[in-house]
Amino acid sequence: MLDKIGTTLVGTLGYFIAVAAAMFVLTKYKGVSLQAVCCDDAVKENKWITPSKTIIMAIIFVLYNVLITTLHPVVEGEGDRWNYTCNFNGVRPSTPGVNVVMKFIHLFSDDVRIFFYFTTLVVILGIMLAMHISKEATPEAFLLLCCTQYILSFYAMLKQAYAAAFAVICISLAIRRESWKDDVLAVLAIVLAITCHPSAYFLIPLFVVIRMKKTKRRVQLIFIGLVVIVIGLEPLVLGLASVIKPFVPSLSVKIYEYFGSMLKFNTSGDMTFVKGIPFYVITAWGCLNRNQLKDKIEHYDTYLLLSGITSFIYVITIYNSWMYRLAYYLYFTVSVFFVQMLRHMENRGNKVLLATVVYGVMALFTVRYLIMTFWIYDGF
Hints:
By secondary structure, this protein is an all-alpha fold. The protein has one domain (2-376). Helices cover 73% and strands 0% of the residues. It has 21 helices and no strands. α13 (216-231) packs parallel to α19 (300-315). It is globular.
């Protein structure tokens, strides 16, 4: 019992110590203050992102991975990490993209832990590159991202970790689009993400939504379309699976695993639906304040739609709780959007209340997730 309490405390507190250290690096390292990095000019010029900060940030979260791997080594037959150990040792193949990563690591080491640590490195580098690309990203957005289970989940969901790293870069490039090169790089990122995890096909419609011309009426129609999809989700996705089966069999199989005859993940998502509360709040606030904020925040309608899609994903977990994993591709973008809304709110009372609700609820669910992970499962 005492060992379990100690492991839970160390694992939980260790993560938030890592987050605190990362925020210190972002806001204080080399004398850059939080006030300075949050001013408009600093944000636009990305003065608070440097290669040295990026490396230190990656090291911090890799060290946390070392900690949790030490607290709970891989146990045969248990958990996602055991499955990836089998992939790494050649017992069964992984996805094409992840297979390439594993072969690369085998050039230097046959220790699966190096694969775990390298995956964390890629996730953090993906976030930092996306923050460098984005004109709207700030340290507070990174803090909000850390309040979610985004980084933590990718200590176990290793295939999707690589897809998410490419996804966050893709979305940031598509939103920025300074030239056609950004579109080319974004499409390349989509292709690479798909080679790592079939759920990354979701990035294709997201890319279309980002790049389409937006009017108030079109935004409203998309939100209405999301409501219609929620009502008739199951027959719609099963019909899609049937149509794409000859062309994209991997995606078709994945859909049937969640909804159809090959059902592997069949759990209702009452608790997962509740976890979507911060995203529902962000989307609702964005809709209610569109007229006031649209001209103050660049790409406002794009951010609003992506926030709405994230909320939609959490709503459809009432059908299957595992659908929430699609939302990971949008966590960074929604975090950036929320912080931008906060920065342009004039009523200080509303700003404090909204920040407390969103940051607080996300952090509360993350603490719960960490405690359950270490107390019930002994770790990742």
